[in-house]
């Protein structure tokens, strides 16, 4: 899935969690998958986003350029309202992982 990302300020973790929860609800309506999750932190496996290297909570954007069944998915207004204090970016600035 190709997508953009939404970055919430460090103090807005609750907003990132709320955004992911609403996007999950919208995803379930769209796909019919009752157990579907919009975004899961790839490090912890928890929903709600992941901090980038600057502490910004980062979640995948529910909207273009994401495609479902050959149609580009528009971001629902309910999701857009929850990201009022966030910015959309093409690529997250993930922390550098040490080996």
Compose a concise summary of this entry.
With 99 residues, the protein is α+β, with helices and mostly antiparallel strands.
Question: Ranges with pLDDT <50 over ≥5 residues?
Answer: none
Helix content: 25-40%
What is the end-to-end distance? 27 Å
The topology string of helices and strands comes to EHEEEEHE
* Quaternary structure state of the chains depicted: single chain
How many structurally independent domains?
1
Main β-sheet, spatial strand arrangement: 2-3-1-6
Structure description:
With 99 residues, the protein is α+β, with helices and mostly antiparallel strands. It has one domain. It contains two helices and six strands; from the N terminus they run βαββββαβ. The strands form two sheets. It has a four-stranded antiparallel β-sheet, covered by helices on one side. Strands 4-5 form a two-stranded antiparallel sheet. β2 and β3 form a beta hairpin. The N and C termini lie far apart (27 Å). The mean pLDDT is 86.
From the structure above, extract its key features.
alpha+beta; 6 strands; two-stranded antiparallel sheet; 4-stranded antiparallel beta sheet; single chain; 99 residues
């Amino acid at each position: 899935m190709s997508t953009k990302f939404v970055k919430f300020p460090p103090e807005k973790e609750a907003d990132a969690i709320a955004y992911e929860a609403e996007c999950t609800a919208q995803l379930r309506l769209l796909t019919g998958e009752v157990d579907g999750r919009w975004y899961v932190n790839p490090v912890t496996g928890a929903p709600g986003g992941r901090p980038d290297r600057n502490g910004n909570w980062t979640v995948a954007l529910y909207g273009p350029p994401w495609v479902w069944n050959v149609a580009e998915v528009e971001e629902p207004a309910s999701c857009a309202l929850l990201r009022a204090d966030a910015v959309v970016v093409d690529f997250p600035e993930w922390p550098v992982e040490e080996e």
